[in-house]
Specification:
Structural class: alpha+beta
Number of helices: 9
Distance between the termini: 29 Å
Radius of gyration: 20 Å
Strand order of the largest sheet: 3-4-5
Helix content: 40-55%
Order of helices and strands: HHEEHEEEHEEHHHHH
Shape: globular
Length: 256
């Protein structure tokens, strides 16, 4: 066995272990797809290169940039498409070009974003989302990546389908009564998925943050404050957030 194959097998074992720790048991076909992605692109779940949502693998901007860097990408250019954009409506369209070598003519991709197709968590940042989507599409074209990137996914408000109550913290109560507002729980669920956080640890952190024995006893205001705090930490200092969450892990979880 060559040194390269040993390294790939090590990455694969780590990927499978990390995936099942975060998303539970994976079907055989899902593991096979993960194996292919590992062998072809050396993507790693631990560094946020891949994410598994609703039975499908998605690559992330971090994973695409890793592929570009390891293939000595020459450069990436982005240009705002003024005629297609509507600043007054927060609608933005970008064109991105990826140059694999100095002589490359470039692989292009377009990305758009407006309030109707981005998460409420990033409202106000539609311009940056549009640019990221354009870059992701250009990178996928340049390096033959068949996976859609998670940043390209649109936002669809949950209506008929509620998050799994076993995995998603409660929205909280107000004055002893359920507040009846599913969006708090949806926002927290999306935040957990977006940043690949452990839902149980987030739930424990939330209860401690709100100062209640159980999250369901927290008020709506407390939950909103916690969501803002979690989003801020996840965006600005993810290592500190992970350290904080790990402090709520039980001895059994730590040993596993």
């Amino acid at each position: 066995m060559t040194k390269h194959s040993k390294s790939t097998n090590q990455i694969l074992r780590r990927n499978v272990s990390a995936a099942e720790a975060r998303w539970g048991h994976l079907p055989r076909a899902t593991k096979q797809t993960l194996k292919t992605l590992t062998q072809h692109h050396a993507l790693m779940i631990e560094t946020g290169d891949l994410i598994f949502l609703e039975g499908t693998w998605y690559i992330t901007n971090a994973g695409l940039l890793r592929i570009a860097r390891e293939n000595s990408c020459c450069g990436i250019q982005t240009i705002l498409q003024h005629k297609a954009s509507e600043p007054s409506a927060n609608r933005w369209v970008f064109r991105a070009a990826v140059f694999k070598s100095p002589r490359s003519r470039g692989f292009t991709g377009y990305g758009d974003a407006d309030p109707s197709n981005v998460s409420p968590l990033v409202r106000g940042a539609e311009m940056r989302v549009a640019e990221t989507r354009a870059v992701n599409r250009a990178l996928r074209k340049a390096y033959g990546i068949g996976l859609c990137s998670v940043e390209e996914l649109g936002w669809e408000p949950r209506t008929n389908r509620e998050p799994d109550p076993q995995n998603v913290p409660s929205a909280g109560h107000t004055n002893g009564r359920p507040n009846g507002h599913p969006r708090l729980r949806d926002r927290l669920c999306l935040l957990i998925r977006q940043h690949q956080l452990d839902a149980n640890l987030v739930k424990a952190y939330a209860a401690d943050f709100c100062g209640t024995p159980n999250l369901r006893d927290s008020t709506r205001e407390q939950i909103e404050s916690f969501i803002a705090n979690l989003r801020d930490l996840a965006t600005k200092d993810r290592p500190a957030l992970l350290c904080k969450l790990n402090s709520y892990a039980t001895p059994q979880e730590v040993s596993s």
